[in-house]
């Protein structure tokens, strides 16, 4: 299998170079927004951050113990303010919790200001990968430093994956990075309060309560504020115990009144449009705002995809290349994988042209010519693939790599971070960011662009898919599913892992991950010869295994929920802990006549024989609304593409258009003389259609 598969674990969204002034957005003041100067109460979208070979070293002389501590703090303040650069700011909206309504949104910064001025001690900010958690944190630190006054709370941005002992020495370890002396650290911890902006809880693989472990609930430290960001996917159902502070002097008794929470919401279409408007002028382009917006709206499902800030910035860079030479965009379907692949190619091509235009010395010129001979872009892709796989394998996915040449020149890190000329050129053209001796792929989590099998690995145990179970990593699974759907070679590699597991115990984990990915990609295994496969712990829910031969297979802990396994032969198979699941069911007092999921899958609408429509939250299966107005049974219902409107038809010969947020009727449509039998929205939701027994 000669196909080279992407294995990059993480990249950052890449807006263009920083302009001389920044801009901002407030959805409530759209008209005035375009005229006013930038507000600092806005969230930055992730920026392009590449390796900076002239890295900053936070160094304070050792004699500072005898100087005023405020002089030292002021020096740090000016350094942090000078480092912060962000070209475009978009104000993030948020909701109160994971189960809160998507329509009950508020400005995240307003909630953070309430947290900082109130009595709460911990605030957890959740969000999907690429939602803007890290850049919001950096922006918050920047704003707090701007407003800092002597003696006030000291803002500390803490990159949790980069620390060795965040469980017990969180403040001290961060201050050491800034080169404060031990005497200064002791003095600050005893006398001063902090705003701890803790970024990447999920990336650091933490499961402990940082506030409790660092004794921040003790007398003298209760005024310290801790804001923590984490991917929503990383948390289980009982996640609050990791973050809620303990009550002072009460062993293991939590203090809910000291805890706040918010979940970053996806961009609205209005926010997307404002971002595009401000993105276009930042560098010379052939496209204008209208070109981008027309393409975003014309390509099926693309607007939904780019509601993620990271994917939006990625899309704007890649879109001109993706649509090049295509006329009928309505038939085009774009995935995250396509955007990513196109962007990486574009990124490397730009860096190749920059190197070609530079006056390189003889040594660098020879190395560059050698890379051109084998293909600069291909070499760059392989370099990043290999590094991503090594991080996943050697560091269990922890994204930050520390490299000091004298200490690490004889281990795996040297293949990517040594001063070798060719390695330096490839590293400089990669998506890596660097702070001091720390390197990382700059998207907020190191696994987002997933470990993918490589055809050049001789030992199955060395494959990224053999390193850990991916069942609890939905973002990785989703990305690899898209790769399977695009790449037949990748699909064949995964099938080969499953086949290898029949005779090789070492292939079991890779096979379980592979079969999970293939099932999620929609492959059917009806009648397949799966005898003696080893796939313990695989998630095969919604799979199709009718008449499959699974004799003597190791199916320990496999999830078969909603799977088709009719006439499957499971004789002598290991079945300990197998889950067959049970679908949730709803008991209603009236006959169900129609049913439909919302476009985003978060709600279920159930039409009843008495004319009511019940709306259920699919996360909790609790009823959130009852839509009343029809006088007879509901015959058909449909959600708009945004899930913000619901269209219903009834035996009473009318149609109703409902506002999903308020539950009120926006329009009543009459005209049919007999029962309405079907209703539908157009793909853009600009039009509706209905069919009736009156033949209209």
UniProtKB/TrEMBL annotation:
<dbReference type="InterPro" id="IPR001646">
    <property type="entry name" value="5peptide_repeat"/>
</dbReference>
<keyword id="KW-0853">WD repeat</keyword>
<dbReference type="InterPro" id="IPR027417">
    <property type="entry name" value="P-loop_NTPase"/>
</dbReference>
<dbReference type="InterPro" id="IPR015943">
    <property type="entry name" value="WD40/YVTN_repeat-like_dom_sf"/>
</dbReference>
<feature type="compositionally biased region" description="Basic and acidic residues">
    <location>
        <begin position="26"/>
        <end position="35"/>
    </location>
</feature>
<dbReference type="InterPro" id="IPR001680">
    <property type="entry name" value="WD40_rpt"/>
</dbReference>
<keyword id="KW-0677">Repeat</keyword>
<dbReference type="Pfam" id="PF05729">
    <property type="entry name" value="NACHT"/>
</dbReference>
<dbReference type="InterPro" id="IPR007111">
    <property type="entry name" value="NACHT_NTPase"/>
</dbReference>
<feature type="domain" description="NACHT">
    <location>
        <begin position="122"/>
        <end position="281"/>
    </location>
</feature>
<feature type="repeat" description="WD">
    <location>
        <begin position="669"/>
        <end position="696"/>
    </location>
</feature>
<feature type="repeat" description="WD">
    <location>
        <begin position="627"/>
        <end position="668"/>
    </location>
</feature>
<dbReference type="Pfam" id="PF00805">
    <property type="entry name" value="Pentapeptide"/>
</dbReference>
<feature type="region of interest" description="Disordered">
    <location>
        <begin position="1"/>
        <end position="35"/>
    </location>
</feature>
<dbReference type="Pfam" id="PF00400">
    <property type="entry name" value="WD40"/>
</dbReference>
<feature type="region of interest" description="Disordered">
    <location>
        <begin position="444"/>
        <end position="464"/>
    </location>
</feature>
<dbReference type="InterPro" id="IPR036322">
    <property type="entry name" value="WD40_repeat_dom_sf"/>
</dbReference>
<protein>
    <recommendedName>
        <fullName>NACHT domain-containing protein</fullName>
    </recommendedName>
</protein>
